Amino acid sequence: MRSRIFAGLLLATVSAGAAFAQGGPIKLADVAELSGGGATVGNNWKNGIDLAIEEVNAKGGLLGRKLEVTHADSQSNPGVARAQVQKALDNEPYVLLGPGYSGSVKVTAPLAAEAGIAQIMGGEAAELTQAGNKFLFRTSFGQQSSMPKVAKYINDELKAKSVAVVWVNNDFGKGGRDVITKEFAKYNIKVAADISTEAGQADFAADVSKIKAASPDAVFVYLNEEESARILKELKRQAVTVPLMGETTLVGQKVVELAGDAANGARGHVGLTTDAPVDLVKAFREKFVKKYNYVPDHNGLKGYLAIYMIKATTEKMGKVDSKAFADNLHGLTIKAASEPGILMDVTFDEKGDIDRQGFLVEIVEGKQVVKQVLPKLN
Amino acid sequence: MSNLLDLLVAGLATGTIYALVAVGFTLLWQTSQTINFAQGEFVMLPAFLMLAAMHAGAPFWLAIILGILLSMLLLGLGFKLLLVDPMLRHGVLPLAIATMALAIGMKEAVKQFFSAEASPFPSIVPAGDLSLLGRVISLQSLGVLALAIAVVIGLTLLLNRTSIGHQMQATAQNPTVARIIGVPVERMILLTFLINAFLVALASLLITPIYLAKFSSGEVLGQAAFIAAIVGGFNQVRGAIAGGLLIGVVDNLAAAYVSTQYRAAVPLALLIVIILFRPQGLLGRPEERTV
């Protein structure tokens, strides 16, 4: 009799525990560049995540459960990022978010894949999704999508025959440099100077002197945000007047803020911008500014979208199942009409790459001005 | 050749700032046997003090004055009274370690109270270019160069042509004898700390518009200035000036003609070569041992 009572109590306890787990918060883990060279990237990303989670929870959560996120600082260091991701995975999150730096994504992606946890990240290096990792998803275009558009613009619109390429010597920069130089070769554009720089570099005087000596028709700048601002200032200081072309990190909001007047005239392709002529993006920008009192760069959008990728995929599955999550996100199209938080119609392919509208922007009087809207491919 | 001229001007502009910071190293070492490993962070902080003043509504010129005064109070007087004086009695090594701890504390405090992200900082020199000998040179480069040179000349005149300067040098050479002949040694040492604080505040004002205001920006500057001080001669102000200029120019030339990737290694290689063949530095004098 006593053993039956004990068994009954045990069963009741286990059932109650299971019920609690079913109705408890859905745990997400974020590892981002909250300090160090990528602090701009990581803090925008984190704020975007927090804003989206606040919205989802305010509307009753995801399948009736609250979302809960823990943020860990990678210090913009791949080694620290790996340790932080390992720690985060030990707590068995539903989905892993971040990091933003390609080098950090590269060393952390195998850990998430081994654990069978989907990783939604901000890295843009082309190679990240080429290695067959079925658990890795982008929130923005990879270089293999963006660089052909940049090269085409330099050829068609700038009519440049020679271009100086300045890149940051890390996975992100080298990936971009490799893709753009291949694209230049297709248009017979000569690489007038191939200049590698260091992450966190403060003084760009020598690099700009090299650019001047090469006399290119245009300069392609592919550095992280802070260094982009520094080189823009130095380019202005040394009176370089040829067109300056880049990608998202050259024309982001933070770069404009840091570089001031020196950013005027810089052009770039951006997958995401808060200046996009899209009503839902404008609404996002207003909400973000109201909450954080500053205009986010594309990383704020990336973090925000990551949460709505999770929401849309989970609602499609009808259950919270971290093992099935990646399978369901592959090939998924999320329409902004049915999930406004995704901001623009988006499709994820079998590699985890993303397809949606893109934009060509120019900095005019300290503001991003969208010059062209590039349509979704599929 | 024209590229070389650009590189030299840019290198000298950066080098003069290194020199300002390096001079602080030598002044503190000469008068109070203090190796300040937080010197780079001493350059970082004034920019944030000025930014804080601007955020509070002060115009730029007032923020500069407040920043310099606060730097002299915190990084001059406060540093001497609260850290150097209590620690120096335990020897040079504990003090050096304490300054390393101070550097970490300052970085973390700025990161906590301001932000881990970089902030823009206005330039004291107006934007624009100047045509000179067929070259376009930015006013900012020239302004930085001119201001830093003016300060270095002023400091040299103070040390060599004034009574206070002579008293400071006497204190540096032999505090005991200086005390016997009536030099107010303590006051001279305090003055040295205040001059160092002024120099780092000025360096901060000149370099931050280019490097941006960031909690970690002192790392690069502190290292470059330390190397400059050793290369030039740790016990000679003129050595620190020469070392600063040399490092600035060599760094730029290395980045342009050797490799950007290995530019950080070039000043270190220079340092090794010089201390191998001339341990006292290019313009330094050998330290005599007392038995």
Describe this structure in words.
- The complex is a heterodimer of chains A (378) and B (291).
- Chain A is 45% helix and 19% strand.
- Chain A has 378 residues and is of the alpha/beta class.
- In chain A, helix 6 links the parallel strand 6 (162-168) and strand 7.
- In chain A, helix 8 runs parallel beside helix 9.
- The longest helix of chain A is centred in the first third of the chain and has 22 residues, at 2-23.
- By secondary structure, chain B is mainly alpha-helical.
- In chain B, 74% of the residues lie in helices and 3% in strands.
- Chain B is built from 11 helices and 2 strands, in the order ααααββααααααα.
- Chain B has helices spanning 2-32, 39-55, 60-88, 92-113, 139-161, 163-173, 175-180, 185-211, 218-232, 237-257, 265-277, and strands spanning 129-132, 135-138.
- Chain B has a two-stranded antiparallel ribbon.
- In chain B, strand 1 (129-132) and strand 2 (135-138) form a beta hairpin.
- In chain B, helix 2 runs parallel beside helix 4 and helix 3 (60-88) crosses helix 8 (185-211).
- Classes of the chains: A alpha/beta (378), B mainly alpha (291).
- Chains A and B meet through helix 2, strand 7, helix 7, helix 8 and helix 9 of A and helix 1, helix 8 and helix 10 of B.
| Count of DSSP strands of chain A | 15
How far do the termini of chain A sit from each other? 67 Å
Strand content of chain B: under 5%
Q: Please list the strands of the largest sheet of chain A in the order they lie side by side.
A: 7-6-8-9-10-14-15
- The mean pLDDT of chain A is 90
Shape, per Cα inertia axes of chain B: globular
Largest interface, with counts of residues having CB < 8 Å to the other chain, equals:
A-B, 37 and 38 residues
* Class derived from helix and strand content of chain B: mainly alpha
Order of helices and strands of chain A: HEHEHEHEEHEHEHEHEHEHHHEEEEE
- Percent of residues in beta strands of chain A: 15-25%
A few lines on this structure:
Chain A is an alpha/beta fold and about 375 residues long. Chain A has helices at about 1-25, 40-60, 80-90, 100-115, 145-155, 170-185, 205-215, 225-235, 255-260, 280-290, 300-315, 320-330, and strands at about 25-30, 65-75, 95, 120, 135-140, 160-170, 190-195, 220, 245, 265-270, 335, 345-350, 355, 360-365, 365-375.
